[in-house]
Amino acid sequence: MVNRRGTYKEFQAAFPKERLAEMTLSEYTNLERENSFCYWVEFKTQDLGSIWGGSSYKFGIYEYRKRPAQNASHVISNNKYAWYRKYNKGTDEEAFEVVKNAIIKIAEHASKGELEAIEKIDELGDVYKWKIAFLYSNETLIPVYKRKILIKLANHLGMPDAKNANIPSLQKFLMKQKGDKDIFEFYVELLKIIKEADKSNKEVKALEKPNPQMSDKSNPKYSEEDFPNEVFMKSADYARLKSLLLEKKNIILQGAPGVGKTYSAKRLAYSIMGEKDESRIEFIQFHQNYSYEDFIMGYKPKDDGGFELKRGVFYNFCKKAQNDPDKDYFFIIDEINRGNMSKIFGELLMLIENNYRGEKHEIRLAYNDEYFFVPEKLHIIGMMNTADRSLAMIDYALRRRFSFFDIVPGFDSDGFKKYQEKLKDETFNKVIDAIKALNSEIAEDDSLGQGFCIGHSYFCNKEPDVKMWFENVIKYDIEPMLREYWFDNTEKFKKETSQLLSLII
Fold this sequence. Notes:
By secondary structure, the protein is of the alpha/beta class.
């Protein structure tokens, strides 16, 4: 049986709050010792909540086995240690003083229940910071450190608007739900809630078996060869798309409905990562009311009256990527042209440019005078529907910050041809030939064009030998589009629809 309270007391005996000021660099991080502060927090206290994921940079300064690249923009290293460049310190001891002072502040604030003060400390990675806070909180915090999981728990237990709450608010709510229960017994109950809610979530599984270094489990692999087959894109087009994203950092996938823009975006990210790591992908959708306050930060009303400054989704994702600078991160925006991008990005419109990435280009944010930068390995993938006549086009100032890539129907890709051959369905073949011919007409129509062609995804996941499947696709997916395309030519619309339906009789 796990003795969590025993582990908790052992840590406090090893690193009492009163002696933190005396801690040396070798006591903090040491490859040869399993009793260093970092080792205790990450490994020896793993039953007190996970801080898995990311890299050693979350510790602020660490002793390395492999020295980081000398030209790395985010880190400084000597012959033994590496530390964040943002500390603006030239020696390891000076950098460690920054880290140690941050730890002392976290421990002091945690012991007094001053959670908002901890939230403002940014010298260390968020998950690591809140793990330290728990270890010095006198059992007044929940031993869960990832905001996403705290939100899941708070939602389940009835917290209003949990998704917009910061970690201090989430912690306070959950501690209130604990009542008189023992903190570690309540933690076990929370583990059960999360597991039952989402058994497949690897972040949830990591709560009990937290560290990837302690487990053989890993993300499913995803190679460059997987992409063209799954996405139904020609290999040459994939190579071009990948090259554009890595060079420009920002790309917009544009095309008609059904060409697989959303599907392509995620798998493009997988192919560059080499694995399906959902923790390095954030997916949102723009709309007309989306704002800077939602995206970066802004003041939001509190339940008990007044306002508080809350960080937005892009801000939080950038911070996450900053704490793991050696890996690629992907921020995917659906319907990117539905939002007012100048209003949403604000002063970060400059920082997303490929030439203005990294800490050396940081600028002061509008709301709190904080200096902020967009990480070099954070990629933005937007998606835009070219067939929606109601949407305004993106202006030229924004266009130069993105590369635009046309996602076209993949009927002629090797992947779709293999899929089609595997079905061995003559009716399916006739329908696809008819759709390809129809697309040629649409592309040549002066009032439409290639951006209105019918996508291949309507015909994926076909049910075998089911006539109703064909009818549903044509009558309820294709027909409404054609009616809108030729709204001023009813005869043309009826003719094309009738021809498609005649193939399945």
